[in-house]
Design a protein that fits this description.
The structure is a homodimer.
Chain A: H1 2-12, H2 15-24, E1 29-30, H3 31-38, H4 42-54, E2 59-63, E3 66-70, H5 79-91, H6 96-112, H7 121-125
Antiparallel strand pairs in A: 1-3, 2-3
Helix pairs in contact in A: 3-6
The structure holds a DNA duplex.
Chain lengths: 131, 131
DNA sequence: AAAGCATATTCCGCAAGCGGAATACGCTTT
DNA sequence: AAAGCGTATTCCGCTTGCGGAATATGCTTT
């Protein structure tokens, strides 16, 4: 039981993964968008997503060429994950890098989904090259 | 700024250190007592305390032969540390290993300090061999 | 000063994890 | 079937970190 917590903290112990998890709290996203939002190379993104997926911190689903990542459905999240995600979201509120990520994310929102607020996975990925 | 958070999570990403931090939330403790409470060898304890000290997650003070470790004074704690300590405390409430640690800690309480509730660092270390 | 106790450090072998380059895979379009 | 796109994997060199044994340090007692 302690080990699960340790695993969780290990997963959080990387800047790229933190950024991924933060972004995902706003809704699902496909890999190509992560590349844009985080401004990091494909390999890096893909590997970290793989890492998170292996450990159950995110779930993936394929839709044509795109793979969409999301946080696990709320009911499937451990209380520890839930608590730490909330804690994380709180901790990064004022962080410059996360703000930048969010800004780029919003741009995608505007370009991709007419739906105000939460993005729709399908819509979001139907315009991978837009913007 | 992100890196500080990452450092924090790295520090949390070890079972022994988690246990140390949990125990410390009940008050300061000297190394010999950690050995008893966590039931781990001296080197292991000392190294992890060193790790935490280097990164500012705990502070140390010498008193004769003993070295007493404590969480930094509340005002000196970053909001991130504070938040994550709280989150941690919440996450481990029902954990078996932490309960055992706590039980052993309480035994020390009884043996060392007549003061009900919080331990006093000095009193706690005046009886390193008791019990 | 010598011995004793509590704590810290060094040395070692080992495993995990990161980033990048190249390459492989899966699906879709032509 | 061939080409193209998005994503995943493998290989590699490198750094970090763990645990244990032995040893060193600092303070205290005799």
């Amino acid at each position: 039981m302690v080990m699960e917590l340790v695993q969780l903290y290990r997963a959080f112990a990387d800047a790229t993964r933190l950024r991924i998890l933060c972004v995902l709290q706003d809704g699902p996203l496909c890999v190509c968008h992560f590349q844009t939002v985080l401004a990091e190379p494909q390999v890096k993104i893909s590997k970290h997503l793989g890492y998170l997926r292996e450990r159950g911190l995110v779930v993936a689903s394929r839709r044509g060429n795109w793979v969409i990542y999301a946080l696990p459905p709320e009911r499937a999240r451990s209380t520890e994950l839930e608590a730490n995600l909330a804690c994380l979201a709180d901790c990064v509120k004022t962080d410059a890098e996360f703000k930048r990520d969010r800004a780029r994310l919003k741009k995608l929102d505007v370009a991709c989904s007419p739906v105000a607020g939460k993005r729709d996975a399908e819509a979001a990925c139907g315009c991978a090259e837009a913007g």
